[in-house]
Design goal:
The chain contains 3 helices and 4 strands, in the order E-H-E-E-H-E-H. By secondary structure, it is of the alpha+beta class. It has one domain: ACT domain (Alpha-Beta Plaits), CATH 3.30.70. Helix 1 runs antiparallel to helix 2. The longest helix is centred in the last third of the chain and has 15 residues. The protein is globular, with a radius of gyration of 13 Å. The model has no long low-confidence stretch (mean pLDDT 94).
Length: 90
């Protein structure tokens, strides 16, 4: 399984989850787990996804999802789970 971690943060607004999940569905990327919260109007979300059957390579997914974030006014980042875990290891 090729796991991808996606993080989203920004001002809360209608349609954030819809925009992200719509893109992932179009790319044939499966959401395995999702956690989201809103604190003082700040929306944050972390998704663990399986991109094994993705129609696009990871670098294209990273660029495209970042552009979606820019369009809706939030910061969206995606990285392979292996890299994410290595960067956040104590």
């Amino acid at each position: 399984m090729k796991k991808l971690v996606i993080t989203v943060i920004g001002a809360d607004q209608v349609g954030i989850i819809a925009a992200v999940s719509r893109y992932l569905a179009d790319e044939n990327i499966n959401i395995l787990n999702i956690s989201q919260t809103i604190t003082d109007g700040i929306f944050s979300m972390v998704l663990m996804c399986d991109m094994e059957k993705s129609v696009s390579p990871v670098n294209q997914v990273q660029d495209s999802i970042s552009q979606i974030g820019q369009k809706i006014g939030v910061d969206i980042r995606a990285q392979l789970a292996d890299i994410f875990y290595a960067m956040h290891r104590i």
